[in-house]
Amino acid sequence: MAIGSVVALAGGVGGAKLAQGLAEVLGPGKLTVVVNTADDFEYLGLYICPDLDTVMYTLCDLHNLETGWGLESESWNFLEALREIGGDTWFRLGDRDLATHIERTHRMRSGEKLGAITADFCAKMGTSVRVLPMSDDPVRTMVDTDIGLIPFQEYFVRLGCSPKVRGFEFEGIENAVFNPLASESLKEQDLKAVIICPSNPYVSIAPILSLPSVRNQLRDVVVPIIAVSPIVGGQAIKGPAAKMMRELGCNPSALSVAKGYEDALDGFVIDITDADESSKIEELGQRVLVTETIMTSIESKKRLAKNIIDFASEIGATHI
Amino acid sequence: MAIGSVVALAGGVGGAKLAQGLAEVLGPGKLTVVVNTADDFEYLGLYICPDLDTVMYTLCDLHNLETGWGLESESWNFLEALREIGGDTWFRLGDRDLATHIERTHRMRSGEKLGAITADFCAKMGTSVRVLPMSDDPVRTMVDTDIGLIPFQEYFVRLGCSPKVRGFEFEGIENAVFNPLASESLKEQDLKAVIICPSNPYVSIAPILSLPSVRNQLRDVVVPIIAVSPIVGGQAIKGPAAKMMRELGCNPSALSVAKGYEDALDGFVIDITDADESSKIEELGQRVLVTETIMTSIESKKRLAKNIIDFASEIGATHI
Known about the structure:
The structure is a homodimer. By secondary structure, the first copy, chain A, is of the alpha/beta class. Chain A has a single domain (5-146, 170-319), classed as Rossmann fold, CATH 3.40.50.10680. Chain A is 41% helix and 19% strand. The first copy, chain A, contains 13 helices and 14 strands. In chain A, a hairpin with a 2-residue loop joins strand 3 (41-43) and strand 4 (46-48). The longest helix of chain A has 22 residues, at 298-319. The first copy, chain A, is globular. At the A-B interface, helix 3, helix 4 and helix 5 of A face helix 3, helix 4 and helix 5 of B.
């Protein structure tokens, strides 16, 4: 049976893992990953795209499993030399990783678009998955905290997520255009499902959903829209999602995530750990898949991807 | 006996070697090195200062003896990764070396001057020698060749000096201001000598001498001005100086170099290999020191430095 195409919305590590599983299960040319760029920033004059790089490196199997970001077999000689001359080193850039940032920055300053550069990098690094920045226009997540409004990477990396979160702003979002290729991919004839990856709902997925027209476009999509909970057993697999939920006065649970996505979803995928939340999520009008969602190997990534695609088929059969 | 201060004019490797010897012989706080910046260029969006870095790295004993440029114990992981994503790699940037270029570029884009950044780098890397870019303003050597007018680094690195040289232009020279600290150092009370290092006369020394007011300032200097020949036995110790001389219709010899500097010099230092040119150079009105000028060790650098300073004393005694 030929499987249709899938559009996945993704942030960093969790999104990248599921994207890798989906790519394996779907085969060449069937997966489009639309990646959050609201955590992009300029550092040392370089244009850095943390989520985009994590997805790209993971799909090319070049990702660093130890750190969860950057490239495998990385060296840190640049960083060490930078420290010696008194440069900023709070954001760690590996020697090989630097090639991505320097070449991208150079090409962007020469007028090339982020999307075009990303496509070229993906081809050079060896993935046929279509990795699309959510927009070629700059959007910047600002975190409203108890110490003020701070850029996301300052909050996330420099301050290790320690400030208490009160809310988020996506600077530039009003004028950012949803990537036209992403828009097209949502209209493909053989589209089977839209999958919201287990990424941080506030800072990875919300920026994509907040781009002008995206919610409308998702409303027009006739295939199932399915999200995977990034919260398992009340905790985020990685990152500050659960901490953020608590600070925003929300119980960190799969149910809370499902509520947040409420109007956008047809189906929701939760971990077996959270099976008891299933009926409450169904009351929101979402179909629920209870399965193993923790991805620790390529096998578990593929298994989850396969289960989600089967789930989409089930929903799809009764959907229209 | 307290030795006075010395101002050295320098390009890359030859200049850096003699500067190291002078620094050792003169002791702390006595040496100012004014460095050519006309071979600076932008590469991959980074501001690169080849001569300045060679001098700085050499004085800090961090220089790469094998390559003649860059840092010792360098790694090349950035370059390898850049090649893999299709970036330009004709100018080789090492991982540690990149810290210098990235931090400098970042600080320059933030409004800091090249001179101030260089002073900070020297302090951090550990030399007390005053290393001064000849100007904070951009000057760019363009090489007029049989294949057209090309930027110096294209000629020097990318094309390996293969085009035939017809002349040189120093773009921006009319509006470039001689470094005020260099200007001051030429007026210091205890100035003992101005030394033109054994650097390429056309592309390392000529840009410095071509800056507005520099020749006038040197004319006003009351201490001996002494140049060291970069040509030994008709050959350049390093680089294309001899090839350039031939292509410009000039016999590559110490005598030719002395003629080129004619009006600026009080003394000229040649290698023992070229002792037979001594009388012809003296006919130009220059005092001549014949000594070993090839610097292959710190000892030979110090010996040459010492000999030049003694030579300056001799000339100085009869100079005013």
